[in-house]
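Progress note, sequence design subtask.
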């Protein structure tokens, strides 16, 4: 038996009804649309879970996820069918704009006592590279001023396991290639030749929370100066994207910003957010 035969024999078969059940549940719970072309991906990535759980069919697996009230089973399912791919300083022009345009305005408002707080949210934060990039730039730009004001950084994701990975803040050394050398020295500890760790003071700046972006209401009392939701909506259909953007709009301060991925866009006229430049939008007023 060759390697491919072993892989094929290790996979479960899925009926059309079972695939539609799972696809509908994923859409209803997470907003992710699984097309017919994703059937082989679903089988390939979920078969190992069925074997671990001692299940015989995808119908049994569907019932297992549907009846699990902890959310852990759904979280694992989403982990397997989506790609939690991110890296430090991804789409660098966003961070350049934040540093050169947004932060000076916020700092001026803080110093003029127009506001005492700043809130930044990384929605769909994956393993934490995005929010840690934001934290590094924030700390480097504001310096000691951060100690005098109420600064909040929030990172959310639907996945329990990926959030735990982000909380630990441990990454392969190879992942630091895009990070400026001075940032490596200031914000990372080298654990060994292969792994680095975010310094504790930077980790402590961030609140990590599990959140499903499909929830009807977000549990936030205040609004955000900046929301990052990049390369998340590529999994959603147009209606789901439109509804999510409306929720983001309601949670952005007047004058605040929404960053999305460069492969994503907000159709003109579908949102009250003002287009600033590719993948950057601004809320002018309620």
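Output:
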């Amino acid at each position: 038996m060759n390697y491919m035969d072993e892989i094929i024999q290790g996979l479960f078969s899925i009926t059309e009804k079972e695939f539609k059940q799972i696809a509908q549940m994923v859409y209803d719970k997470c907003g992710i649309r699984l097309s017919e072309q994703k059937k082989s991906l679903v089988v390939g990535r979920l078969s190992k879970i069925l074997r671990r759980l001692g299940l015989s069919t995808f119908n049994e697996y569907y019932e297992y996820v549907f009846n699990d009230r902890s959310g852990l089973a759904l979280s694992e399912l989403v982990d397997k069918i989506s790609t939690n791919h991110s890296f430090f300083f991804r789409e660098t022009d966003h961070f350049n704009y934040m540093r050169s345009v947004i932060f000076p305005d916020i700092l001026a408002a803080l110093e003029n006592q127009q506001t005492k707080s700043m809130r930044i949210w990384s929605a769909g934060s994956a393993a934490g590279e995005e929010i840690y990039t934001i934290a590094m730039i924030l700390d480097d730009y504001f310096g000691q001023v951060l100690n005098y004001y109420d600064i909040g950084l929030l990172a959310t994701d639907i996945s329990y396991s990926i959030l735990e990975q982000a909380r630990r803040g441990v990454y392969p050394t190879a992942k630091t290639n895009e990070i400026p050398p001075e940032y490596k020295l200031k914000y990372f500890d080298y654990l060994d030749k292969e792994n680095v760790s975010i310094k504790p003071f930077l980790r402590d700046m961030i609140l990590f929370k599990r959140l499903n972006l499909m929830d009807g209401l977000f549990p936030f009392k205040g609004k955000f100066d900046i929301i990052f939701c990049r390369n998340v909506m590529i999994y959603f259909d147009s209606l789901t994207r439109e509804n999510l953007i409306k929720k983001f709009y309601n949670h952005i301060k007047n004058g605040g910003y929404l960053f999305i991925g460069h492969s994503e866009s907000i159709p003109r006229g579908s949102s009250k957010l003002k287009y600033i430049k590719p993948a950057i939008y601004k809320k002018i007023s309620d």
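The radius of gyration is 21 Å. Work on this subtask will continue into the next period as scheduled.
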